[in-house]
Specification:
Blueprint lengths: L3 H8 L5 H5 L36 H8 L14 H6 L3 E11 L5 E8 L23 E2 L13 E5 L21 H5 L2 E6 L5 E11 L21 H13 L3 E2 L10 E8 L5 E9 L14 E2 L11
Length: about 300
């Protein structure tokens, strides 16, 4: 049987700034509202304490109101061999619209997740030393059959041989040919097949000094605990978006964010954000409808 490693080698306008700065610099999902709940002193209580009838107990009342715990779905059989080879395997990422001359997609790889964001920087899927690394998911919120982050960030190197996330940089072209050919991303987990439509592509630095806007740490936007968290994320990705996207988004949607090194300036990152398709949504309605955003914000270091 062809080894996995050989298989890999073979495939191998501006939104109000007040809305941006109003959110804590800690990033999405980290804002904690002050608890303003107050307890009324016992002397001022007007309602008598509630007592249960002899036939009623707190245990039975709770049992009647709580739904049964969710059951984790069975893993997809088609990914069983990858999980057996590496238990860090959590899914697969593919973009069909960016291809080799033979028609095979450039981006078509397994995704791993472990307990930090460092381990797979210099290791391949078999956990062997490799400067090319492996595509891995942000470790903070584990991907399971029942749970994953509202916005899952995937990291991959921009290797000169075109492997892993190098061809995300194709979305930096001055026209819209790439985005209109490759606006759909497939991101399966071990338990679910799913497609996403691209919402934003943007360039960003990793240091405050590289821009005249507050640093946007997109990778910290994991769970949107409040609508303000979601708005902070959306405002920032649209402010910097290379394209005017036809894809509408709303609070409660789920996203995948692909991140790689860019070479526009030192320590720059190119980022692609896509929204998960809703049930029954036809992605073909977005075909050919992406336009250039001539008013996008670019980092100061890139001007």
């Amino acid at each position: 049987m062809e080894t996995l490693r050989n298989r890999f080698l073979k495939k191998a306008a501006i939104i109000a700034l007040a809305a941006v700065t109003a959110i804590s610099a800690a990033g999405c999902g980290n804002k904690v509202e002050e608890d303003r709940t107050q307890t009324t002193p016992e002397s001022e209580q007007t309602q008598p304490p509630i007592t249960l009838s002899p036939e009623t107990t707190t245990e039975s009342a709770t049992a009647e109101t709580l739904p049964p715990p969710p059951v984790e779905p069975d893993p997809l059989e088609k990914y069983a061999e990858y999980y057996e080879e590496n238990n860090d395997f959590v899914g697969w990422i593919r973009i069909d619209g960016i291809t080799h001359s033979n028609g095979d997609p450039w981006i078509d790889y397994p995704v791993v997740q472990t307990t930090d964001n460092e381990y797979y920087l210099d290791k391949n899927f078999d956990k062997e030393k490799s400067k090319k690394g492996t595509i891995y998911a942000d470790y903070k919120i584990p991907i399971t059959g029942l749970n994953m982050a509202d916005n899952v960030t995937l990291y991959g190197h921009s290797n000169k041989d075109g492997s892993f996330f190098r061809h995300l940089l194709d979305y930096q072209t001055s026209d819209t040919s790439t985005i209109n050919d490759a606006y759909i991303i497939t991101f399966d987990t071990r338990w679910e097949e799913a497609q996403y439509v691209i919402v934003s592509c943007f360039l960003v630095g990793i240091y405050e000094k590289q821009d005249d806007l507050p640093l946007f740490e997109y990778f910290k936007c994991r769970n949107f605990e409040t609508e303000d968290d979601y708005n902070y994320f959306m405002n920032n990705i649209q402010l910097r978006n290379y394209y005017v996207s036809p894809v509408e988004c709303e609070y409660g949607d789920r996203f995948v964010t692909l991140s790689t090194c860019a070479y526009t300036f030192s320590d720059s990152r190119f980022v692609v954000v896509a929204r998960k398709l809703r049930e029954g949504e036809d992605p073909s309605v977005y075909a050919g409808k992406y336009e250039r955003n001539r008013e996008k914000h670019m980092p100061k270091a890139a001007r």
